[in-house]
Amino acid sequence: MTGFDLFKEMDSFTHEMDQVFRDLGFGRPLVSGSAYRGYPRINLRENQDAYILEAQLPGIDPKALEMTILKGTLTLSGERKAPAEGQGTWHRRERGYGKFMRSIDIPAEIDGDKVRADYKDGLLTVTLPKAASVLPKRIAVQAN
Amino acid sequence: MKNSELTLHKENTPVVSERDRAAMITPAVDIFENDDALTLVADLPGVSKEHLELGIDRQVLTIEGRFDRAEEGALYREFCGCGFYRRFHLPDNLDLNQTNAELKDGVLTLRLPKAASAKPRRIEITAR
Q1: Based on the number of CB atoms within 10 Å of its own CB, is A137 exposed (0-12), middle (13-18) or buried (19 or more)?
Q2: Which of A94, A120, B19, B127 has the fewest CB atoms below 10 angstroms from its CB?
Q3: Which of B45, B76, B86 is nearest residue A123 as measured by Cβ atoms?
């Protein structure tokens, strides 16, 4: 049997340091009041017409993923199934399994009918178009 | 004695500087061993096949995944777009020519079969 020590990890110290620092405030969320961290990890960005939410969901069947939007709150839920275990030894078990649910507040009004979600390479990308009422409007000036 | 070789190897190691690597995320992995093989499973969300580099050099396995994506207009961030990087020192009882890697939905599954000499063998006892 291969011992745990034989399967050595390299450079682990620097990376762990790095993550400790990250948790202390580097790369902290830019929006206040939303420092909560759950599963899945998310990024939210915006462009002119839409908010774009990305969630890290590796190894999930997109059909088993549920997404609802209610009054500006988007809720994601699903389950990551644990792999079948055979006879043997685990040397590392860092990947988590189980059910999850996460709610995200969308910062402005969106057009709920036009929301689109794509799942690719374990990343869920949700495009939330802004509602017409919050989009800037161009007003033509009449020349008299 | 092997110094020159080592330097050369370093120069050949590609693309990213050490500083960039320090900013990369350490992916979560599972490592499972049975009689036939070691199986390593790594979460690499957002990494496509084209952006995944897997290398085994002198018993060192390197996993490096990158992704290209828009970063502008960020309102809230819990993960960075800087990619994944992790290295492992492999035990020497593996048959590295039989390595098999699969990437699906952002999950890498790497099967590293053991060398025939490292597998447990049953010895038949003949009765006379």
Answers
A1: exposed
A2: B127
A3: B45
CA–CA dist B119, A59 (Å, integer): 30
A49 touches chain B (CB under 8 A): no
Residues 6+ apart with CB under 8 A from A13: none
Which residues sit opposite B55 in a β-bridge?
Answer: B62
User: Could you state, in chain order, the average pLDDT of each consecutive group of 10 residues for chain A (144 residues)?
Assistant: 52 49 41 54 90 92 90 89 82 87 88 91 93 84 87
CB-based contact B91 A59, cutoff 8 Å: no
Encoded tokens for B110: 């790497």
Phi-psi region of A11 (alpha: psi -120 to 50; beta: other; left: phi over 0): left
Task: Give the A:B interface size as CB pairs under 8 Å.
Answer: 148
pLDDT in tens, B6-32: 333 343 444 455 656 777 888 999 999
> What pLDDT, in 10s, does the model give residues B53-91?
999 988 899 999 988 766 778 888 888 878 899 999 998
Which of A5, A14, A15, A119 to mutate to test binding with chain B, by most B CBs within 10 Å of its CB? A15
CA of B103: which chain A residue's CA is closest?
Answer: A121
Both ends of chain A: CA-CA distance in Å? 90
